[in-house]
Write a structure and sequence with these properties.
By secondary structure, this protein is of the alpha+beta class. It has 3 domains: 9-198, Histidine kinase-like ATPase, C-terminal domain (Heat Shock Protein 90, 2-Layer Sandwich); 214-329, Ribosomal Protein S5, domain 2, CATH 3.30.230.10; 437-673, Ribosomal Protein S8, Chain: A, domain 1 (2-Layer Sandwich), CATH 3.30.1370.100. 37% of the residues lie in helices and 19% in strands. The protein contains 23 helices and 22 strands. Helix 2 (24-37) runs parallel beside helix 6 (164-180) and helix 18 (546-554) packs across helix 20 (588-601).
């Protein structure tokens, strides 16, 4: 049996560092939380080289006495906990006394601190957990902690650090979370000498959110406020359903000022948005939960980001009700009916009242200008001006309407309107939808005229109509599918989501979004060349987190092959100039956010798997959505694809159809036992 050895304190500290100090962002978190516990009103965080080479956190808190400065770096040395009873009611950000010892074990540290009652401060220099120098010095009230060369003595840990940009982004996000949880504290973050954000510290949550998350997010937020009889309270902000995002990166939950990851609060939040958001869209929020310190246990995770509530059901219900109430208050109310007004008297009063010059130019039409005699006054005042009556009348330009293609030589250029109307009548006669509840026979022949191959058909791709031969091949393939299918009757669709089909002795329900999504995914995956892109008339700007920005830069070639054209537009901001031809420009930002989330979750994927992940998003955004009005011909195309067995599952693995046999229906209605 191996001999049991007692590890040296230095080795034990390095093992503890593996739990507390995962990366430079962990150091920033521990030092900022110490500054908050010290009662600081102003905190400055400065990093260089992604934080691996230099981190400096300064505050104006209470400071430390000289005799405490050296003891602070010993393991389990803390001023926030004295006995085991304190663990039952933790009110500070830190309490274990492990952070400084773990950080000093894998870095070089310099500490300067002074209390307000002391005339001079003290400094301490440590290397690998050992004090190298200590003495008195001049410094302002508060504490300045400088950490250099993280993991310099543990190369195995150093090689697992990511790029400087990724590590700096993680440090910035940690500092932002701390600042967002404490609006009463002013937090400034500097990266390589450049200020990245600054919170005012005026104890107003709305100004803190505005300065840290930006104007666009702050303007979309709705205020949240609710409490219960036990003293539990929820405040903060949630986004309007119209401003939902493509991932959950903008969800911030706090418990007594501490940032937490809470599946419970996240579930309550998203449950309140049920039936208000599209699939794949997520709300943004900043929610502050306040409750008794004895009703929450924060000593669950080494990073203290996971907590355990004593009354989880009450927390869920309070968060759900608070968010639901905020969303309910956003809905516009019906306008009040205006009181009856004597129109002639009101008109006389308005005309007698002198109008401001701005209203004169904004609201007076040319006809009113001539009728009221202002034209004559203008002519007298300016004899050289051209009379208004002599000015030519503006021609009314009607929007250009698309003309259906016709055979060469058959277009009459003298009568373009008649050509359009005749084509429109031809289309309406052949594609006129019938009553939804009237059964239709499956023997539907394709229109023989070129009008039926209009580019507006969502299911037919432009590549299928490059030549006449390709058009013929498409018709033949559709005809073959029809011949192989068993007879069916398209009854219609319900809830604008599910197609109802009767085939033999079965009733089949088809999810039109899932089926169309699979059609688009299969077509894009089979393409051997780059996906056709459409250039946006107005480029879409998008702001990402530092990690997502790095992912987007590293995968720009893959996205370009799939139809996305992006370019950097400032720090962590990008401009989307083109999207796949199947996708609407309104979905560009949401698609980029969703793609970044998928690529971040699957960083070890192969190039082919990463391409499939992106194609999943493209197909989902380009497919018809539940709730849309869909033409009957499009529904028939989907039904044929599904019933032929070509489509069985959506790209995410969900089934696209469900069949109910005659026997199952009879059992539901108790016709048989």
């Amino acid at each position: 049996m191996p001999v049991i050895n007692i590890l040296a304190p230095h080795v034990a500290d390095m093992i503890a560092a593996g739990e507390v100090v995962e990366r430079p962002a962990s150091v920033v978190k521990e030092l900022v939380e110490n500054a908050i516990d010290a009662g600081a009103r102003n905190i400055t965080v400065e990093i260089r080289g992604g934080g691996a080479t230099y981190i400096r956190v300064s505050d104006d808190g209470c400071g430390m006495a000289p005799e405490d400065a050296g003891v602070a770096f010993m393991r389990h040395a803390t001023s926030k906990l004295s006995d085991e009873r304190g663990l039952e009611c933790i009110s500070t950000m830190g309490f274990r006394g492990e952070a400084l010892a773990a950080i000093s074990a894998v870095s070089r540290i310099e500490l300067k601190t002074r209390r307000a009652s002391d005339s001079e401060g003290c400094y301490v220099r440590l290397e690998a957990g050992e004090i190298q120098d200590m003495g008195l010095c001049g410094c302002p009230v508060g504490t300045v902690m400088t950490v250099r060369d993280i993991f310099y003595n543990t190369p195995a840990r150093l090689k697992f650090l990511k790029s400087d940009r990724s590590e700096a982004s993680a440090c910035e996000q940690i500092a932002l979370r701390c600042a967002l949880g404490h609006p009463e504290i002013s937090v400034r973050f500097l990266k390589d000498g450049r200020e990245m954000f600054f919170s005012p510290g005026d104890n107003r949550a709305e100004s803190c959110v505005y300065s840290l998350l930006g104007r666009d997010i702050a303007q979309s937020f709705l205020p949240v406020k609710a409490d219960d009889e036990t003293g539990m309270k929820v405040t903060g902000f949630v986004s309007s359903p119209a401003a939902a995002r493509g991932n959950r990166s903008c969800q911030y939950f706090y418990c007594n000022g501490r940032y937490i990851r809470s599946p419970l609060m996240q579930s309550a939040l998203e449950q309140a948005y049920k039936n208000s958001l599209l699939t794949g869209r997520y709300p943004a929020c900043v929610l502050y939960l306040s409750l008794g310190h004895s009703n929450v246990d924060v000593n669950v995770h080494p990073a203290k980001t996971e907590v355990k509530f004593s009354y989880e059901r009450k927390v869920f219900e309070l968060v759900y009700q608070a968010v639901a109430l905020a969303l309910e208050n956003e809905r516009p109310t019906a306008p009040r009916p205006a009181a009856p007004v004597n129109k002639p008297a009101a008109a006389a009063a308005v005309s007698a009242r002198p109008q401001p010059k701005a209203d004169f130019y904004q609201h007076m039409s040319a006809q009113s200008f001539r009728e009221n005699g202002y034209a004559a006054k203008s002519e007298k005042a300016q004899p050289k001006a051209v009379p208004i009556s002599a000015a030519p009348a503006a021609a009314v330009v009607s929007p250009v309407r698309p003309v259906a293609p016709a055979a060469p030589g058959s277009v009459k250029f003298a009568e373009p309107v008649e050509v359009f109307n005749s084509a429109k009548e031809e289309v309406s006669e052949k594609l006129q939808p019938e009553t939804v509840f009237q059964p239709v026979q499956t023997e539907i022949s394709l229109p023989s005229t070129p009008v039926s191959h209009a580019k507006s058909d969502k299911f037919l791709h432009s590549d299928d109509f490059s030549t006449g031969a390709s058009v013929k091949s498409v018709e033949n393939s559709v005809q073959n599918v029809e011949n192989d299918l068993l007879p069916f009757t398209l009854i219609g669709e319900t809830l604008k989501t599910y197609i109802i089909v009767e085939q033999g002795e079965s009733l089949i329900l088809i999810d039109k979004h899932a089926a169309h999504e699979r059609m688009i995914f299969d077509r894009l995956k089979e393409q051997k060349r780059s996906i056709m892109a459409q250039t946006l008339l107005s480029p879409v700007s998008i702001s990402l987190s530092g990690e997502d920005a790095e992912i987007l830069e590293n995968n720009c070639e893959l996205l370009y092959e799939l139809g996305f054209e992006t370019e950097p537009f400032g720090d962590n901001s990008f401009v989307v100039r083109a999207v796949p031809a199947d996708m609407a420009s309104a979905d560009a930002a949401a698609a980029i956010e969703e793609i970044c989330e998928k690529l971040r979750a699957g960083k070890s994927l192969s190039a082919e798997d990463a391409r499939d992940h992106v194609l999943h998003t493209v197909a989902c955004k380009a497919a018809i959505k539940a709730g849309w009005d869909t033409h009957r011909a499009e529904l028939e195309t989907l039904v044929k694809k599904v019933l032929s067995g070509e489509i069985k599952y959506c790209p995410h693995g969900r089934p696209v159809s469900v069949a109910l046999s005659r026997k199952e229906l009879d059992k539901m209605f108790k016709r048989i036992v």
